[in-house]
């Protein structure tokens, strides 16, 4: 693996991808999310930004003139500025990929080819380079040239159909609240990059692979058994609201304080304990509800009984009763609940991180994976840098030329 050169470079520590060098040509969400995961795992990520910076630096709230979200989105990465349309910019990209293991890009299909940086050109500079291409619809097919954002991935991938409220036809199905299709595509791209790098490791003659990940396909991959079910029977799964049609009771119930409680009581022993806990042991002994099939057939009646009980207590009290009976349950957390929860804090899922650029302490989410010998806090080596903060290091020390002015 290419590794990092220079005594002044940020250090990677004992993380599993330390020594893997990745060039990011991403912007907005999907590509940069993939490289953030790789960077959290220890990869050296060199983020290429236009001189004005990644457009997402202009999104969301700001502190001290800097975007708050980008503190996370660009963490553990180096930032350099290049004009990809200029001859100098393209030449420097080719020098960089010659010293890299992988490149991640999420431009519209054909853009890199149009500016003279398509896979054939990149592989001339480095035949072992792994190239991950993230786009709306993929690098081929009749829709490849159509524009797409995350909401389009949700819509065409089948997810937005399922988020509708059953029986409600005069309001659009809501999005989940975050850019889920961008994040999914980014996760798949990160996984594929890691796999492709592993696949050529130890084989000097191996050629780097080209990876094709699309937002629509990333969402579509989550549709469980819906495709074979449709192929066999023509059945089209419809929105189920907060319930799960294949398991009961699993739903979300309104409590006395107006808050919601999610309860999963869908195994036979758990259901009996749940009935006892809500003061209705007769329901647990009812032969109609003895197994999951029977409970699914009578889901409305069971949910109504549970809902009657939850509406008598505040959500936290109802949660405490059910937890004492070993029933899976949780209040619906907002970000305040997450930030203040003792479990999140104890596991450093929520951590305090100094951001020098903003001159303050921020709350950061931990990386979604743990490794023995490395604390979650140690995986956040630095917060997002300023635009072009590493020009001197990358162009001067790594490429051995005068830094970009």
Structure description:
This protein is α/β, with parallel strands linked by helices. It has two domains: 21-221 and 366-398, Rossmann fold (3-Layer(aba) Sandwich); 250-336, formyl-coa transferase, domain 3, CATH 3.30.1540. 38% of the residues lie in helices and 15% in strands. The protein contains 19 helices and 13 strands. The chain has a six-stranded parallel β-sheet. The chain has a three-stranded antiparallel β-sheet with strand order 9-10-11, covered by helices on one side. The longest helix has 21 residues, at 180-200. The protein is elongated and about 80 Å long. The two termini are 29 Å apart. This is CoA transferase. GO terms for molecular function: transferase activity.
Please summarize what this structure is.
By secondary structure, the chain is α/β, with parallel strands linked by helices. It is built from 19 helices and 13 strands.
CATH architecture of the largest domain: 3-Layer(aba) Sandwich
Task: Estimate what percentage of residues fall within beta strands.
Answer: 5-15%
Low-confidence stretches at least 5 residues in length (pLDDT < 50)? Answer: 4-8
CATH class of the largest domain: Alpha Beta
Largest sheet: 6 strands, parallel
The CATH topology of the largest domain is given as Rossmann fold
Give the termini separation.
29 Å
Kindly give the count of domains: 2
CA gyration radius, whole angstroms: 25 Å
Helicity range: 25-40%
Instruction: Label the overall shape.
Output: elongated
Quick one: how many beta strands?
Answer: 13
Mean pLDDT, all residues: 94
The assigned structural class equals alpha/beta
């Amino acid at each position: 693996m290419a590794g990092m050169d220079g005594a002044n470079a940020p250090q990677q520590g004992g993380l599993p991808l330390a020594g893997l060098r990745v060039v990011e040509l991403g912007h907005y969400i999907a590509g940069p999310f993939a490289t953030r995961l790789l960077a959290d795992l220890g990869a050296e990520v060199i983020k290429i930004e236009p001189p004005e910076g990644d457009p997402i630096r202009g999104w969301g709230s700001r502190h001290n003139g800097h975007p708050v979200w980008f503190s996370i989105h660009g963490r553990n990465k180096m930032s350099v500025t290049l004009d990809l349309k200029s001859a100098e910019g393209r030449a420097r990209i080719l020098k960089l990929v010659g010293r890299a293991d992988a490149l991640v890009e999420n431009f519209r299909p054909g853009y890199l080819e149009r500016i003279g940086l398509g896979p054939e050109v990149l592989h001339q500079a480095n035949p072992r380079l792994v190239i991950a291409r993230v786009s709306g619809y993929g690098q081929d097919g009749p829709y490849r040239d159509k524009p797409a954002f995350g909401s389009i991935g949700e819509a065409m991938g089948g997810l937005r159909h399922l988020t509708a409220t059953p029986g409600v036809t005069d309001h659009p199905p809501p999005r989940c609240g975050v850019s889920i299709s961008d994040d999914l595509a980014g996760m798949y791209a990160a996984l594929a990059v890691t796999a492709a790098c592993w696949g050529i490791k130890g084989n000097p003659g191996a050629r780097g692979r080209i990876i094709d990940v699309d937002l629509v396909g990333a969402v579509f991959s989550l549709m469980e058994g819906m495709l074979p079910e449709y192929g066999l029977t023509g059945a089209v799964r419809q929105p189920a609201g907060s319930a799960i049609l294949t398991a009961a009771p699993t739903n979300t119930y309104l409590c006395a304080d107006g808050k919601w409680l999610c309860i999963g009581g869908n195994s036979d022993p758990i259901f009996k304990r749940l009935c006892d806990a809500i003061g209705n042991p007769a329901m647990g002994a009812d032969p109609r509800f003895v197994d999951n099939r029977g409970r699914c057939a009578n889901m409305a009646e069971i949910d109504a009984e549970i809902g009657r009980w939850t509406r008598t207590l505040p959500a936290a009290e109802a949660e405490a009763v059910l937890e004492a009976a070993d029933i899976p349950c949780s209040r619906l957390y907002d970000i305040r609940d997450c930030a203040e929860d003792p479990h999140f804090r104890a596991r450093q899922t929520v951590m305090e991180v100094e951001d020098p650029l903003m001159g303050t302490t921020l709350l950061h989410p931990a990386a979604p994976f743990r490794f023995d010998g490395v604390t979650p806090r140690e995986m956040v080596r630095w917060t997002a840098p300023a635009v072009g903060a590493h020009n001197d290091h990358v162009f001067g020390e790594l490429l051995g030329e005068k830094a970009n002015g």
